[in-house]
UniProtKB/TrEMBL annotation:
Superkingdom of this protein's organism: Bacteria
Keyword vocabulary terms for this entry: Membrane, Transmembrane, Transmembrane helix
Organism listed in the record: Candidatus Amesbacteria bacterium RIFOXYB1_FULL_47_9
TM region positions: 7-26, 32-52, 64-83, 119-137, 149-164, 170-189, 196-215, 227-252, 264-284, 339-357, 364-382, 415-434
Protein name, UniProt field: Glycosyltransferase RgtA/B/C/D-like domain-containing protein
Coiled-coil ranges per UniProt: none
Length: 540
C-alpha cells in the first residue's frame, strides 16, 4: 500500500523536524508552533513504523471492555477512602504552580516554576500540564487537586493489567490489579494529590512497551518503547531509570539476534530523542534544570550513626523498616510510623520475586524496578523515605500476582479458591495498615486555620506573618468559599513596619515565641493567642 522508501523518508522527516526544533530551543529561541511540531513527530513516528511492519492488532473488545472496568477498582477505592482535608503540602505546591503559570507565553520545554527560588526545584512542563487540563475541566479546589492524580492511578492499573495478562493470563491480571488497588503505601500516597505518581504511571506504560517489545521485537514495539522511555524524563525523577531498563531489554534481544538487536536499538533511540531532543536542547543551551533535584536528594546519615559505619547501618535500617514499625517515613510522609509492608505482603513478595523470573519473558524489570525504588529510599536522608519508593508499587503488585499464579500450580494444582483466600487476607491486612498510616496524621493545621479565619474574620484582610511563598498562602488559594478574606503574606518585620493599630486587623503568624511580643508592643490592647503548635493569631 505504501512504498517503504516513502516511509523511511517520513522517519527522516520526523528526525529533521525534531532536530530543527531542538536547535531552535538550544539557541534560546521559542515559537509556539515548536510544541505542535514536537507532538506531531511523536504521533507520526509510531504510525510510520506500524505501517512499515504491517502490524495487525486483533482486539477482543469484550475482553478490553472488561479490563477497562476492572482497572477502575484502584481509582474508585482511592476516591472512597479519601479523607476530607488531608493534604501534604507537596500536592498543594504542585497545584499552586500549575494554576499561576502563564500558559499562554511559557516555553513548553522549560522548567516550572519560572522563578527557581519559588520551590525546591524546577520540573518539566508536562509534570504540570495535564493537571492544568484537569483543572480547566473540573475546577480548582482541594477535591480536584486530590482527584487530579486519579487518571495516573488508572494508567498504572491498566499497565499492571496488561503486563500480568501478557505473562500469566487474565486471572493473574485481575489479581495484580487487586494487589495494586489495596497496597497500603500506595493508598496512603494516592489518596493525596501528589503528582509524582505521574512518573509511576508513565514508567508503567514504558514497562508495558518493554514487555511487548520482548515478546515481539520489531520496529513498532521498539519505537513505542523508545518514546515511552523518553516521556519517563518529563515528570518526576523516580522514573529516570527508564533508559537503563531499556538498555537491558535491548541486550536481551541483541544476544539472540545481534543484527536485529542493533537495528531495533536505532529505532528506540530515535523514539527517545524525538521526545527528549528539545528538552536536551534547552538544558544544554539555556538552563539544565533536570539534575537539580537529584543533587538535592542525597545521602544524609543519621547523627546517631558513626560516620565510619553510616552507610551500612542506614542500609540495614532501611531493610528493617520494610517490616518493622517506627523506623521509616520522612519528609512529611511518616506513614503513621508503620512498617512499609505488612506480613502477608512480605510473604507474597518474597516468593514472587523468585517466581516472577520463572519462565517470564521480561520479568527482570520487576526486581530491577524494586531495587531502584528501594535504593531511592536507602541512600536518601534519614529516616528511610518511603514515599521515594512509589515507582515500585506496580512491580510489587506484579510480584505478588506471580506468587499466587505460580504457587497455586505448585500446591498440588490448588484452584483459584486458594488465590482468592490469599487475596482476601491481603486486602484485609492492607486496609488495616492503611488506616493506621493515614489516620495518624490528624487535622491539618493549615486547613483548620483557614477555616477559623474565614469563619471568624470574614470582613478583614488576613495578614500572614511568615515569608513570601509560605505554604499557607498557596493552600489558601484552593480553600473553598467565595467569602474568603483577602490574604497577604510577608516577613514579620515588614508587617510590623506597616502595622496600623487603628484599623480592624488580624495577623496569623509562625514563630510567635519570638515575634508575638513585638506585635503585642505595637498595640497592647490587641489579643495574642496560640491557635496550634504551628500558628498564633493576633487580632483586635
Amino acid at each position: 500500500m505504501f512504498d517503504k522508501s516513502i516511509l523511511k523518508w517520513l522517519v527522516l522527516l520526523c528526525v529533521w523536524f525534531a532536530f530543527f526544533v531542538s536547535i531552535g530551543v538550544y539557541r534560546g529561541g521559542y515559537q509556539g508552533w515548536y510544541f505542535g511540531v514536537w507532538l506531531g513527530t511523536q504521533l507520526l513516528f509510531p504510525v510510520v513504523t506500524w505501517i512499515y511492519e504491517k502490524t495487525i492488532f486483533k482486539l477482543n473488545w469484550k475482553k478490553v471492555f472488561t479490563a477497562l472496568l476492572i482497572c477502575l477498582l484502584p481509582v474508585l477505592l482511592r476516591e472512597t477512602l479519601a479523607i476530607p482535608g488531608r493534604i501534604n503540602g507537596d500536592d498543594i505546591n504542585t497545584a499552586y504552580f500549575t494554576v499561576i503559570t502563564d500558559w499562554r507565553s511559557i516555553n513548553m520545554f522549560s522548567g516550572i516554576p519560572a522563578d527557581k527560588l519559588k520551590w525546591v526545584s524546577q520540573f518539566p512542563v508536562p509534570f504540570f500540564l495535564f493537571q492544568k487540563i484537569f483543572f480547566n475541566v473540573f475546577g480548582e479546589n482541594f477535591d480536584t487537586v486530590r482527584r487530579s492524580v486519579l487518571p495516573y492511578v488508572y494508567i498504572v492499573s491498566l499497565g499492571v493489567y496488561y503486563i500480568a495478562d501478557k505473562w500469566w493470563g487474565w486471572k493473574a491480571a485481575v489479581a495484580a490489579v487487586v494487589f495494586y488497588a489495596f497496597l497500603a503505601p500506595s493508598m496512603y500516597l494516592e489518596t493525596l494529590g501528589l503528582h509524582f505518581v505521574s512518573s509511576t504511571a508513565i514508567f508503567t506504560v514504558f514497562a508495558a512497551c518493554v514487555v511487548a517489545f520482548l515478546y515481539k521485537p520489531d520496529r513498532t514495539t521498539a519505537a513505542a518503547a523508545g518514546l515511552a522511555a523518553g516521556w519517563c524524563y518529563l515528570f518526576y525523577i523516580t522514573s529516570y531509570i527508564a533508559l537503563g531498563v531499556l538498555g537491558v531489554a535491548w541486550l536481551a534481544v541483541a544476544v539472540k539476534n545481534p543484527r536485529d538487536g542493533f537495528r531495533l536499538f536505532i529505532w528506540s533511540t530515535i523514539g527517545a530523542m524525538l521526545v527528549l531532543g528539545p528538552f536536551v536542547g534547552y538544558a544544554l543551551g539555556v538552563d539544565n534544570y533536570f539534575g537539580v533535584r537529584m543533587g538535592q536528594v542525597k545521602f544524609v546519615p543519621s547523627e546517631a550513626i558513626s560516620p565510619a559505619r553510616s552507610r551500612l547501618m542506614h542500609l540495614k535500617a532501611t531493610i528493617r523498616s520494610m517490616y518493622t514499625p517506627g523506623i521509616g517515613g520522612a519528609g512529611g510522609y511518616n506513614f503513621g510510623g508503620q512498617a512499609f509492608l505488612e506480613p502477608v505482603s512480605l510473604a507474597l513478595l518474597s516468593t514472587g520475586l523468585i517466581l516472577v523470573l520463572y519462565r517470564t519473558r521480561g520479568g527482570f524489570f520487576v526486581p530491577v524496578t524494586l531495587l531502584g525504588a528501594f535504593t531511592a529510599a536507602a541512600v536518601s536522608a534519614w529516616p528511610p523515605a518511603f514515599h521515594r519508593m512509589s515507582l515500585g508499587f506496580p512491580a510489587l503488585a506484579l510480584a505478588m500476582a506471580a506468587s499466587v499464579h505460580h504457587q497455586k500450580k505448585l500446591l498440588l494444582n490448588a484452584g483459584w479458591w486458594w488465590a482468592v483466600a490469599v487475596i482476601l487476607t491481603y486486602t484485609a491486612a492492607n486496609l488495616d495498615l492503611w488506616k493506621k498510616m493515614a489516620y495518624e496524621t490528624g487535622v491539618n493545621h493549615d486547613i483548620s486555620l483557614a477555616r477559623h479565619l474565614t469563619e471568624n474574620f470574614p470582613d478583614r484582610t488576613i495578614r500572614m506573618a511568615a515569608f513570601p511563598g509560605y505554604v499557607f498562602e498557596r493552600m489558601y488559594r484552593f480553600f473553598p468559599g467565595s467569602n474568603r478574606p483577602i490574604l497577604e503574606t510577608d516577613y514579620h518585620a515588614n508587617l510590623l513596619n506597616r502595622f496600623t493599630p487603628d484599623e480592624k486587623y488580624v495577623y496569623a503568624m509562625i514563630y510567635a515565641e519570638e515575634f508575638g511580643p513585638k506585635f503585642q508592643a505595637m498595640d497592647p490592647v490587641g489579643k495574642l493567642y496560640r491557635y496550634s503548635d504551628v500558628y498564633s493569631i493576633f487580632a483586635n
